[in-house]
Design goal:
alpha/beta, Rossmann fold, 5-stranded mixed barrel, 7 helices, Purine nucleoside phosphorylase
Length: about 270
Amino acid sequence: MIPFEHYKEAAEYLRPFIPQNTKCAITLGSGLGELGNSIVASAVIPYTDIPHFPKSTAIGHKGNLIIGTLDGSPVIAMQGRFHYYEGYTMDQVTFHVRVFKLLGIEFLFVSNAAGGVSRGYKVGDLMIIGDHINLLPNPLIGPNMAEFGVRFSDMTRAYDRELIKKAEQIGKDLDIPMHKGVYVGWTGPSYETPAEYKFLNIIGGDAIGMSTVPEVIVARHCDIRVFGMSVITNEGYHFEDDFVNDGDDVIKQANAAAGKMGKIFTTLIKSLY
């Protein structure tokens, strides 16, 4: 268990860089770190400079914390996240979320690259995360950190309904089609077998990925409101003889869709200030 003092030390290191009215943080997932280029940065801090922060090792994760403005709105952006499959504990995977809470963050925007397991989901599609299924260890297992939240935190509104409604309207206004579905959090790092893809769809999943869910659970424990979006980067429901999952192609497809997702995030965040 990470001691509370470590979260405080990381927050105190970052506090001088962060404008007092900053209330939105963004986690940019695989390939989506390029969205950080839309942020007018006042500071770009490598994770390795922040006390107790893990190091991001996944493909497409630059490992920087960007502090600045997104179309005039103050934000903190994680240019890359931490994953259970990298060998980190769940406390390490979610370390930044608790630091954000100490910095006064009220809204967490999470993004990821995901495999579509619902037929009709195509590469390049966007999916608003309406709910999730957690097949990773729960990050709240262990002694409760009462400084952040209660022992048994409610997850019936894991993804904020008001933010989802706003995002759906923004999508209509900008003519950006989006699905709304259930994201399944899976350990990785190997991609799923055809049978596993089928199973995950049968149990209610629309998209599958190796991240996001632990961050959301900890955010809700901290009473931070969450909005999540997936970019569909591969289709997990057809398996011709020549079909394989390719990590480099996932990054390529995520980058291609980052512009659309960026417009949604930018407009939604602007509505909160």
